[in-house]
């Protein structure tokens, strides 16, 4: 879990440490800090690091500006200049550049404060990393062992999460075309998601499980969750153009229901992956009849419902190389319109009428009956989610 640069800055305000440019970039995420002095060391910059520079290789303002510009272009979160013998002041042109590019630039006016600032920042970053590890483990326990509350509730409470609050799980999974997505891209997507989540508060976080991103929201409204997840999807598509499967579970009261919200999101995810419906946010609570189906835990009951309603038709198609199963589905999806089925399949209405009679004969039902249509329609919808 990264630390927002502004959070680190607030922790060191007691020292002679000031921001001189790039204030609009204070929401940048920081993973660690590095001490870098030369242009030759630019390639060693780790993305989202805060860079300390004393100016050992700086001979003029142009050298300093080139060094900081390259640091900013290498994905650093910001640069801290230590004023002293080598760096007397910050060039106006460098300040203008950092303001224009929203790259935070700081100065430490007293070299004696350097070690203190480093110590405070390293403590905060390590504390954040510790929180990330503990919360990730707690979330996995909450999902897998919801009844063993002693495994996860103390951890969540330690980091300010309420036992009685509302909890919602979302799943964001990049489409991989059966290929492995490079680790660097996955890390970049996770960091970007973290940045967006932190911009909306501290009661949400992401964990990466086998390149599937699981996001927990605590005490957010359904509307805000949808907004945040949509923003995450929009941002991630710029990194991974192949697209994403995105689902949101129910927003439920009580920390013990994290697992149930996850199960709902997982079932929605299974359904949209089966349909290959990418780049749309699907919410469990907005799925109508699918919400009812997805709430049923007895998968054998659902399978039997499909088999009892449509099994004979599927068997007939398999044995006779026909498509009556598809014809009935189109018929039900078009409110029982023979004309619509004929137009969709480019067949004569008389041919469709004959096939509908054959379907009634095989299933031994009266298709004109509303209850029969409802039962068959439900069976098709169940089949979609199994």
Please render the helix and strand layout as text.
Layout: E1 3-4, H1 5-11, E2 17-21, E3 29-30, E4 32-35, E5 49-53, H2 61-73, E6 78-82, H3 92-101, E7 105-108, H4 114-144, H5 153-158, E8 166-174, H6 183-198, E9 204-209, E10 212-218, H7 222-236, E11 244-248, E12 252-253, H8 258-275, E13 281-283, H9 289-294, H10 299-320, H11 324-333, H12 338-345, H13 349-363, H14 370-385
Parallel strand pairs: 4-5, 5-6, 6-7, 11-13
Antiparallel strand pairs: 1-3, 2-7, 8-10, 8-11, 8-12, 9-10
Helix pairs in contact: 2-3, 4-8, 6-7, 10-14, 11-13, 12-13
Keywords, please?
386 residues; 14 helices; alpha/beta
Task: Explain how this protein is built.
The chain is of the alpha/beta class and 386 residues long. The chain is built from 14 helices and 13 strands. The protein has helices spanning 5-11, 61-73, 92-101, 114-144, 153-158, 183-198, 222-236, 258-275, 289-294, 299-320, 324-333, 338-345, 349-363, 370-385, and strands at residues 3-4, 17-21, 29-30, 32-35, 49-53, 78-82, 105-108, 166-174, 204-209, 212-218, 244-248, 252-253, 281-283. Strands 8, 9, 10, 11, 12 and 13 form a six-stranded mixed β-sheet that branches. It is elongated, with a radius of gyration of 29 Å.
Our estimate of the beta-strand percent is 15-25%
Number of strands: 13
The main sheet comes to: 6 strands, mixed
Average of the residue pLDDT scores: 93
Q: What is the helix content?
A: 40-55%
Regions with little confidence, pLDDT below 50 for 5+ residues: none
User: What structural category arises from helix and sheet content?
Assistant: alpha/beta
Q: Determine Rg (CA atoms, Å).
A: 29 Å
SSE series: EHEEEEHEHEHHEHEEHEEHEHHHHHH
- Put simply, the count of helices is 14
End-to-end CA span: 35 Å
Shape: elongated
């Amino acid at each position: 879990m990264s630390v927002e640069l502004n959070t680190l800055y607030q922790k060191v305000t007691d020292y002679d440490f000031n921001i001189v440019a790039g204030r609009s970039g204070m929401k940048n995420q920081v993973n660690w800090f590095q001490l870098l002095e030369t242009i030759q060391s630019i390639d060693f910059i780790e993305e989202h690091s805060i860079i300390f520079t004393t100016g050992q290789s700086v001979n003029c303002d142009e050298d300093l500006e080139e060094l900081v510009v390259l640091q900013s272009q290498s994905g650093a979160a910001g640069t801290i200049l230590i004023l002293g013998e080598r760096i007397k002041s910050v060039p106006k042109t460098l300040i203008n550049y950092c303001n224009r590019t929203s790259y935070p630039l700081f100065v430490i006016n007293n070299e004696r404060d350097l070690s203190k600032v480093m110590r405070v920042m390293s403590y905060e970053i390590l504390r954040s990393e510790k929180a990330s590890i503990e919360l990730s483990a707690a979330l996995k326990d909450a999902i897998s062992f919801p009844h063993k509350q002693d495994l996860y509730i103390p951890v969540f409470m330690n980091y300010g999460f309420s036992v009685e609050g509302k909890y919602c799980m979302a799943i964001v999974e990049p489409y991989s075309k059966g290929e492995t997505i490079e680790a660097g891209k996955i890390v970049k997507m996770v960091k970007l998601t973290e940045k967006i989540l932190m911009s909306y508060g501290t009661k949400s976080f992401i964990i990466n499980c086998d390149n599937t991103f699981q996001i927990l929201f605590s005490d957010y409204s359904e509307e805000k969750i949808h907004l945040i997840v949509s923003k995450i999807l929009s941002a991630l598509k710029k990194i991974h153009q192949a697209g994403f499967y995105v689902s949101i579970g129910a927003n439920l009261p009580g920390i013990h229901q994290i697992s149930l919200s996850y199960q709902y999101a997982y079932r929605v995810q299974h359904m949209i992956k089966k349909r290959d419906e990418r780049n749309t946010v699907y919410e469990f609570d907005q799925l109508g009849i699918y919400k009812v189906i997805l709430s049923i835990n007895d998968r054998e009951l659902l399978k039997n419902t499909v088999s009892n309603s449509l099994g004979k038709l599927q068997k007939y198609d398999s044995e006779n190389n026909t498509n009556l199963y598809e014809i009935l589905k189109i018929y039900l999806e078009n409110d029982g319109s023979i004309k619509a089925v004929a137009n969709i399949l480019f067949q004569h209405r008389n041919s469709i009428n004959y096939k509908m009679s054959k379907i009634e004969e095989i299933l031994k039902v009266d298709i004109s009956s509303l209850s029969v249509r409802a039962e068959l329609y439900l069976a098709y919808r169940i089949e979609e989610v199994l």
